[in-house]
Amino acid sequence: MHRVPGLAIVAMVLAGGAAAQQPGLAPDAGGKPICYQIQSTVPFTILTHVMLPSRVTSVARIEPNTMQRHCIQGAPFPDGRVNFRIVSGLGPPLFSCQTRTDKPIFVSANKEADGGYTYQVTCY
Predict the structure, then answer these.
(1) Residue with more model confidence, 1 or 31
(2) Which domain range does residue 31 map to?
């Protein structure tokens, strides 16, 4: 679990629209398409990155309480893993893990007393 101050959430929501791509296939980097699903129960829009060792990145803007399917093309990390990140558009990732793509990535968050959020993400 990672703790996020309230200000970072505002920056993430504001920056999300400009950087997000439409769902589909990320730029061609060779290799076989890797498809994955992200399900968010977070009450606000989040910006995610899925990265491969070649640094090819798929960017997605996930609306509240939705599931989206995306694909990225290239070679994954060992064991078929990708690097999943929740980002604000500014600064370091708010959450990062390596996960397999054969199961949905579930994202939730608990609101803290100070207004920030603690992310909970299933990474396999």
Answers:
(1) 31
(2) 2-121
